[in-house]
Amino acid sequence: MTDALEVAGLVVDLPGRGGPVRVVDDVSFDIPAATTVGLIGESGSGKTMTANAVIDLLPSGATTGGSLRWRGEELLRASRARRRQVRGHEIAMIFQDPLAALNPTQTVGRQVGEILRRAGQSPQQVRSRVIELLDRAGIPEPAARLRSYPHEFSGGMRQRAMIALALAGSPALLLADEPTTALDVTVQARILRLLRDIQEDEGLAMLLVSHDLRVVAHVAHQVVVMYAGRVAERGPTSAVLREPAHPYTRALVDSVPAVRTRTALAHPLPGTPATPANRPSGCAFHPRCPIAREVCRVEQPSVRSVGSGRWAACHFAEEA
Amino acid sequence: MLEVRDLRVRFGRFTAVDGVSLSVGPDETVGLVGESGSGKTTVARAVVGLVRPESGSVLFDGAPLGPVGRRPASLQRAVQMVFQDPRSSLNPRMSVSAIIDEAWRTHPSSAPSGDRTTALHSVLDDVGLDSSVARHRAGELSGGQCQRVSIARALAVKPRLLVCDEAVSALDVSVQAQILRLLVDLQQRHHLAMLFISHDLGVVHQIADRIAVMRRGVLVEEGPATDVLGAPQHEYTRSLLDAALELTRES
């Protein structure tokens, strides 16, 4: 299977008070076509910056290194015009807060149709395609909702409108950053099912960024776990969650309670997540790690193969 | 110990809580769950006296609690709240020691009779904070540390009931586990009763003895935690459970 996106040695530096801070450090993973990759991490893990680098939405002053190959084409060194062409068309994004991402002064129909109008489609073509897209996103009576404004929609309906908007450019890769975090559980379940259906039906590649292991477990084929700007572990979701190869992943898995049965409280990790600006020596996870040894304090582990399709950055992955 | 009887709260024409009754006994943890708009936070705010009920009553040891300003000092002390967002519930410019001091000034009967510094360090130690944190301003602390300070502020006045409104929801996953563990430890150590409000059924299942489920201002189901989440009786509880994600993928 061909890879839609290849991220290799990606580096993102942001300007900081005491010089640049490396918020994404040597991150590598692939998103094969028709595959969903989940990107998991806590605050400071670099997961959102990684996604923002892919969609070319890094804050001003950010510098990048490494490689982002989109269908074989290097995006980091592409012209601004070419990057603009990719963003919103070939690669589209769904944000956590649809109210902030949608324009409050324009009807939903107008916003979803914008990209089609700019592509020179006739008003009739635009209208019927927008109705089709709203319907695909599960908005009932789409023809009647064309003239609605975002504030007239519920949170779940707004997220559906944003999904319709993302699909309007017929993307091959969909980036979703915490797409259900602001939603109630019953709405979350429906939106996740919709994203999964769309991904499967259209054969899209998808990058799902989340802090919630359960969300990723539900929709992602592959998972990338990030900690302090680096990849801690990556591999097939079910294998990683069943047998984590990194003690950090293990702790995350153990901290998720079951819902239908009563589970004992997890033994919590000490301390708080390391951040790139405040990164411990050696393995950034070592101050919180239950199996850390001397080598972990001094030597940064590189990502190595730990089984079929499995990669982990831990000196003692075999013991995790 | 805490008894809420037929509580009704209205905001203008909107009825946020419509006839809710529930109780929390000594040493007991009651989980209150529901989606946004269910009225669970309004119940919490009525219990601590931040909203005025239209009708019904909130009783503590049989005595009516009333609004926070007119509540007898001893009752005001007895019920303390921990909020969802620790950063916005603490003044970022105040030092941790000033925050705890303020709690003692508000409730002089709970203030230490001996050395304040020793008492301060012991309160911080209780919530797992190093005494060096006392000098720091709240704005310099991490989210998890801020939540520990909020809990320390509540505990400093020696409450008997802790009302936690989404107290771990805004925290990083690995920090959530620490704060949950802390709350459960503190509850046992200090014989606290706890009203724990959350949208996360898994978390509530881990720590609650009993669970009450709210929907649109009404309590639809209430009972022992393992019964409510193991064998739900109400259709709405079942739909919440169906929607809740488990870590193991079923499809």
From TrEMBL, chain A:
Keywords: ATP-binding, Cell membrane, Membrane, Nucleotide-binding, Transport. It holds the Pfam family ABC_tran. The keyword Membrane applies. Gene3D superfamilies: P-loop containing nucleotide triphosphate hydrolases. Residues 5-253 form the ABC transporter domain. It is a peripheral membrane protein. This is Peptide/nickel transport system ATP-binding protein/oligopeptide transport system ATP-binding protein. One of its GO terms (cellular component) is plasma membrane. GO terms for molecular function: ATP binding; ATP hydrolysis activity. Belongs to the ABC transporter superfamily. It comes from Kribbella antiqua. GO terms for biological process: peptide transport. PROSITE patterns: ABC_TRANSPORTER_1 (PS00211), ABC_TRANSPORTER_2 (PS50893). It is found in: Cell membrane.
TrEMBL record, chain B:
It comes from the Bacteria. InterPro entries: AAA+_ATPase, ABC_transp_ATP-bind, ABC_transporter-like_ATP-bd, ABC_transporter-like_CS, P-loop_NTPase. Keywords: ATP-binding, Nucleotide-binding, Transport. GO terms for molecular function: ATP binding; ATP hydrolysis activity. It comes from Kribbella antiqua. Belongs to the ABC transporter superfamily. Pfam families: ABC_tran (PF00005). Residues 2-241 form the ABC transporter domain. This is Peptide/nickel transport system ATP-binding protein/oligopeptide transport system ATP-binding protein. GO terms for biological process: transmembrane transport.
